[in-house]
Structure to design on (281 residues):
């Protein structure tokens, strides 16, 4: 998401919105201000907060609206030069702009599959909308304090996925961070010693930095990467652990599937699949 925001920022900064055209029934999550109020606004910059892309307009956020885009699992963004008129299946919104050089450009948000979860918001000046509920970013002091000294009794994996506790990690990076820190997917934060906590903090930050590096090196469409292209262990169960060569396994809990290496993370112990064992009972 960070790399995507950087690329959009380079494309669209200084561009003037000519129209924002909603294309789906359920994509737009706000009513007021309406998308028509965006016409004439100049893009000040594009960045990211958690998994939201944030489009800022001139002169500043206190007096101009902001646009948020959440791509969810299957959404993607296309920059169209020149803009198209077609209405591709799964289209959510097409924003038409005139860029710094006076050329017409459009930003199309669309979604593949049937989920219909990709969404966008037009936030009134000063309104944080869904950003209000987000926890601190992983590189903040606040997150560092939580990991090194917090007494949260939940599992680390649950904590990392909870956007109200820390924003922008998600389950893929949670798998990779636990693997890097050699921690069990079932470890709770309160049970970790100081060394493990420090390793966890380093691991979370490292997987995010490395993920961003890989993304910055990508060319082509502005889609989200496919699973498995992007992560070290997440969703790679059945293949060899990149560190020790043993087989990666998966375990289900809380309706999530976690990939881990028994040799590196659980002293060789294969974790019981809680969903499966419930069924067996
Ligand atoms: Zn291993």
């Amino acid at each position: 998401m960070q790399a995507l925001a950087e690329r959009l920022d380079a494309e669209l900064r200084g561009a003037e919105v000519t129209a924002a055209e909603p294309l789906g029934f359920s994509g737009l999550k706000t009513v007021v201000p309406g998308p028509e109020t965006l016409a004439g606004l100049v893009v000040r910059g594009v960045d990211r907060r958690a998994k939201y892309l944030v489009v800022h307009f001139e002169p500043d956020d206190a007096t101009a609206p902001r646009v948020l885009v959440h791509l969810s699992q299957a959404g993607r963004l296309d920059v169209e030069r020149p803009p198209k008129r077609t209405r591709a299946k799964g289209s959510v919104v097409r924003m038409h702009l005139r860029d710094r050089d006076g050329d017409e450009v459009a930003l199309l948000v669309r979604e593949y599959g049937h989920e219909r979860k990709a969404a966008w918001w037009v936030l009134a000046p000063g309104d944080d909308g869904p950003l209000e509920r987000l926890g601190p970013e992983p590189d903040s002091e606040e997150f560092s304090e939580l990991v090194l000294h917090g007494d949260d009794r939940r599992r680390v994996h649950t904590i990392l996925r909870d956007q109200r506790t820390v924003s922008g990690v998600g389950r893929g990076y949670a798998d990779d961070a636990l693997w890097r820190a050699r921690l069990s997917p079932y470890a709770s934060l309160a049970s970790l010693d100081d060394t493990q906590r420090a390793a966890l903090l380093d691991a979370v930050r490292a997987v995010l930095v490395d993920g961003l590096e890989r993304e910055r090196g990508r060319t082509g469409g502005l889609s989200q990467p496919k699973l498995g292209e992007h992560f070290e262990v997440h969703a790679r169960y059945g293949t060899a652990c990149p560190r020790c060569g043993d087989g990666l396994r998966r375990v289900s809990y809380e309706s999530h599937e976690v990939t881990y290496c028994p040799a590196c993370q659980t002293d060789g112990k294969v974790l019981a699949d809680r969903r499966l064992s419930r069924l067996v009972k």
